[in-house]
Structures are given as structure tokens and as C-alpha cells.
């Protein structure tokens, strides 16, 4: 964060921009017009409000905060009068975090520009008791920082009943032994049981130092610490500060040019991470050469200006806080947090020491996530917490809730990035393996046999590069067959499997027999299910259509014959391979998978026959039952003015129509 030297402050800041959030009087200014009905907070409180004219004058008088507000609030095309008031939007009227300031112009224009800020106070500040947000610790490798890390570890091991202690029953095949002086490391095989750390980091391209078959053959297994990439050097230092002599690093503990060794060790990934003493996350670094213990840049040093403003506490104490752009703190994403392999390592590890650009954070199963300064919740913590609750003894497994956790994990995972496309399943193999310990289910290329009907119900959001890349990675019905993207499952809270849907047989053949949760060579599902009539499906929009097939549903309505007046509306989200069929009736079979009785809705998948009896997934569809007028069919005895009876009759007719659909047996590859 900006220190007192880098954060701007001037007489205008001190005189006109007092922050007093606690015990703040109710908003004093109301704007009522056809376009706006909003209360505004006068700023500063208890003084004459600041007008845009005054703000401009302060900016001309070299007040950097006033200049910043002027640029932010008048950036649009709207012209404002000089007497418009500069106001704060009350926090209880906006979706803002604690310690936030939102500034706008009090006008009847709902499309005003806003300026969003987060404020913080130093630990020794007179207002620190009311402002919990702290600036980042600029020195993550200081003695004080390492002392804090040791305290976090000991607090967890000694006092957290929900956190499992490391068990002396597993040791990785290979481990780095750190010399007593820390000047060298040696790759040991079959070491005796002992506490060890694991390192999670971004490779950042080809590695200069890795373990190879020739090194193993020639017993070239020792390295000078100074010769290692900076991230490895920093990890060695962290281990020494924590009193650990063993460190696991994938590049040096897996033979990188031996596919079979890779397969074996990837199969042990869950055990390697779950049995670790601590996981060291080098979240700051984009590559192995970057390191993660270097001095942090303060807020305001480069991209984000910082402003020191006066602050008054509820108890009357006064001091100052530093404001920074809220986007600087909330939208910054550490490079490691976007990596698919790191997602699994984050989920599996029982204890984590996360070295980020803005903070060092301790993460375990306790609810508190202490940091060495700036507060922020790491991504995916919800999924991580639910996962550890699931695998903790006693495992009272509920398959439905278990599947919800799996779906959430897959959705988070699919938002990551991966250098090697064939790693999609291996990079999640450890999590899948631990899931199966609880569920005792059959793993089917990223899906689960007991909930296969739910696992088929996914779609990709518009705007992503959605075409399946060259090569084979998974069967077409699996999420693992598509690129990483904004990925969703349909909401299945009120869905049930369609009565005609039945999994008759399945087969998944892994590339390596020892890695059943990893890369697959082939696979199919043999399914019997109901098929929609061809006329149900809409045409595929062409490239000139505004209804893009890439994630936007295309809808088609028609009347069902043979039943009382009933219309159905079918929407499809075709997979990208269908983009070449623009303007044509959807050339696919529509397989009904699940039924939402509450909404009179059928969900299913589109299947394309690429050769006789060989089907591949081609998209997703949903079909709604509708009726614009109360039915008059004599077989349905309801009163026409009875809305509930009308709806019930419509639903019964839709159910009868659905159950009358023909069935078909097919293999989906």
C-alpha cells in the first residue's frame, strides 16, 4: 500500500474529505425524478457539501484526490452543471465491502460514473481498532514474517481440532533432502517417514533443471541451492524457517522424460498433497525464475494511486486511512490461482502458506484465514472447505450433496488454464480419487456412474473459444472433451432423471492402467432414452444471425398434435461443431435426460450420428410445455376458470406426451 511517503495528502484532503462510517447520520439528500429515487450521503458530514465546481478548483490547486475524482466522475459523455454535489452512496444501498467508499455525483442520471475505493489503516494507527484492513507486508522474507508463519503452523497443529495432523504413514517416492546449511539439496528415494512440504508454483515454460532418466541412471541427484531457479531457492528457505528438511517439487521428484513414471506419480498426487506438513504456494510468480519472497511493491507505486484521508471513529478518536482503488485490491489475481494443476493442489492440501502479491495467507480448515497484512478471501475456499468436510471422518456421505460439491469443483476447475490439453483429467485425478473413497462410485472420464444423467447436463458460456482442439482427450459427453471455458451445469435442484433414461453399459479405457483417474484412450456410454420428434428442434442460426449458437439458446415453438391444445417451446445450445449448419433444421437426435416437473420442463442432450450407430454429443436442449388457453379436451375434466386446475391439466398432458415419446438405444462416444 502507499506509505506515508507515496500516499497523496494535502490540506484539501484533510479539510474536506473526512471519512466517518460508524454512527454516520442518515443520508441528508434525496433526488427524486422519473429516472432516479435514491438517497445520497453528504460529504463531508456536518459541513457544506462539495460541489463539482469546488472539486475542480481543488484539482487545479494540485489536490491529487480531487483530480482523480474529477477524471473518474466526468469521464462519460454526460455534461454536469458546476453546482452538482459530490456525494457518497451509502454502503447499505450498494453491494460494497466493509471499509469501502463509493463516490458519485448526486443527479437523476442512473448511469453516472462511480469511483470505488478500499481504505486501510496501519496496525499502530489510532483508528486501527475500527478499521481492520491492513496494508500489505512489503517484506515477506523478514524475520517477523517467518515468525508469524511459524505461529500459524503451531496454532493449527496444536489447537485446531478440525485440522488433521500430518500422519507418519506416507512418504513420496522421491523427496528433496535439504542440507543442514541449506546450501544444497539431494533427491532421495524411499526416504524414512518425516514431515515434508510440497511446492505449488507456475512452471512458466520449459524448465532448465528437471529430473531426467539419464540423471537417475548416473546418480546425478545433488544440486547446489544457488544453482536452482529462484522459486525453488525461496521454497528451500521457507522449509528451513519452518524447521523442515524435506521438500517435494514435481520437476525434481518426477522423472520428466519418463511417461510411465509420470503416470505412477500422478496417481499418488492425492496422497502426496494430503499427507504434507504444509503446502507452499508461490502464487506471485508467473514462472519458476520469478521467486516469491522478493519485496512487494506498495499500492500506489505503479498503477494504483493512493490517498491519505482523515478518519473519525465511533469513540471519537481520529486518525487517517489510506484509500486505494477498490479494483486494485479486488480484481488482482495471482498467476498461480489461474492454473489447473494448482487448483488440485490448493484443494487437497490440509495446510497452505500462500505467498501472494498482496499478502501472505495461512489457509487450513479453520474459518479464519489470517494474513500478514491485506485481507482477502482466496478463490475457491468454499469448494475447498466443502471438500475437506466431505472427506473428514466420520464420512456420513450423502450422494446428492457429494455430487453438488463435485459439480462446484469442476466449474471452478474449468475456469483455470492448462498448458497441455491432455492434462485435463490428470490434473483433477487426485480430487477424483479422494471422492471415490467416500462415494464408492464408478469414475467415468470425469463423471460418476450414479449421477451420469446429471453429469451430462453441462454447457459453455458465450464468447469462449469453444471448439474441441485437435486430438482425443475424453468422450464427447464428458466436460473433459472441451477447452477450459466459462462452464456451467444446469440447475438440477428440482430435476429428476427421466423415466425413459437408462444407462445400459459403459466403458472407459485409460491410457495407463495404473492411472484410472487420468487420461483416457477411449470410452462410450450405451443409453436407452426417449427421443423428441424432429419437428421440435429449431434451426441452427447462421453466422450472420444475432442469435449466436455459441452459448445463446435458439428457441422454436410448435403445437403438439394428438393432445389437448398444448404448445411446447424448445431451446438449444449447440456445441461449436454445429456452427457449419447455419440455417438448417438441427441435424441431431434429442435425447431426453431429466424432467423438471415443477417447471414442466425437459432437459436433454443433442446427439449427432457421425457414422452408423456412432453418436457424439452435439449440444444441450430444454423443452417447456405451454398452453395459452385453458384446454377444452373432454378427457381433461377441469373448470376453465380454475387456474390451478388449468395448470394441472396442462402439466398432466405434457407428462402424458413426454411418456408417449419413442425410445431408442444408442452408443455415445
Task: Provide an overview of this structure.
It is a single chain. The chain has 669 residues and is of the alpha+beta class. Among the domains are: 143-296 and 332-389, no CATH class; 441-669, no CATH class. The protein is 23% helix and 25% strand. It is built from 16 helices and 29 strands. The strands form six sheets. Strands 1, 2, 3, 4, 5, 6, 13 and 14 form an eight-stranded antiparallel β-sheet that branches. The protein has an eight-stranded mixed β-sheet with strand order 10-8-7-11-9-12-15-16, sandwiched between helices. Strands 21-26-27-28-25-24 form a six-stranded antiparallel β-sheet. The longest helix is centred in the first third of the chain and has 17 residues, at 143-159. The protein is flat. The model is unreliable at 25-39, 91-95, 542-552 and 627-646 (pLDDT under 50).
- Give the termini distance in whole angstroms: 54 Å
SS class = alpha+beta
The total count of helices amounts to: 16
Query: What share of residues are in beta strands?
Result: 15-25%
Principal-axes geometry comes out as: flat
Main β sheet profile? 8 strands, antiparallel
Strand tally: 29
Proportion of helical residues = 10-25%
Instruction: Please tell me how large the radius of gyration is.
Output: 30 Å
Average the pLDDT over all residues and give the rounded result: 81
